[in-house]
Amino acid sequence: MKLPVIVESLSSVDSYCDSWRLAVETNNAVKWKVVPSKCVSYLETYYSKGQFDKDYSLVASYALAFAKTVKMGGDGKDAWVFDVDETLLSNLEYYKTHIYGAEPFNSKEFSEWVVQGTTPGYDASLKLYEDLKKLGFTIILLTGRDEAQRSVTEKNLKDAGYSGWDQLLLRGQEDQGKAATEYKSEQRSRMVKKGFKLHGNTGDQWSDLQGFAVADRSFKVPNPLYYIA
């Protein structure tokens, strides 16, 4: 006996993908590998119709509102940490060619993309970045990119409109193989030992924000394309 094929309605698929995205952003769907295939069209719409930009802008507005409450020491040690990929620079064009994250991540292909150095920034992150500088925050960029990619990363950031950061921290040889949470926690700890007060931290992954030596406030910007532990 041949069983009938059950076809989900568009509304039920979108409803599922709404719930899935919420689980991703709240870190309940931990250690997920790829975007569900039925949510590819949903993500295409999420990005192309402006909802992603609205979500990012709202998070950025909360970050700026908090930043305005910080009592600055005036010693150059009041710091704000930013991740780079999917926080300051958008790799959406890369992920469009990889089915919006429905394909397993290929580190070699992504590295080849990075060295092109053509990744654009986000309007919301650039505004937040500039507003924080005007408030007097020292900007620390902490990325999972390798030290060998420093030059192309610096140029890409500048081409995208970012400037005036104090430090750009990348993975050295001693950091290879470390989980992102461990690596970024260690880097933040070093900054604290140098006297920096980490008031804020903005990243697209929970591993950008959690661990030890965390900031006073952390702001998770949307990224339903991939997960890094």
What key phrases describe this protein's structure?
Rossmann fold; 229 residues; disordered N terminus; 5-stranded parallel sheet; 9 helices; alpha/beta; acid phosphatase activity; APS1/VSP; single chain; globular
What is the multimeric organization of the chains shown?
single chain
| Structural category | alpha/beta
What is the first-to-last residue Cα distance? 45 Å
The second-level CATH architecture is: 3-Layer(aba) Sandwich
Strand order of the largest sheet: 3-2-1-4-5
CATH class: Alpha Beta
Instruction: Tell me about the largest β-sheet.
Output: 5 strands, parallel
Which term fits the overall shape? globular
> Order of helices and strands, N to C?
HHHEHHHEHEHEHE
Q: Any low-confidence stretches, pLDDT <50, length ≥5?
A: 3-7
Explained architecture:
Helices cover 42% and strands 13% of the residues. The protein is of the alpha/beta class and 229 residues long. The protein has one domain (12-220): HAD superfamily/HAD-like (Rossmann fold, 3-Layer(aba) Sandwich). It has a 5-stranded parallel beta sheet, with helices on both faces. Helix 3 (51-67) runs parallel beside helix 6. The longest helix has 17 residues, at 51-67.
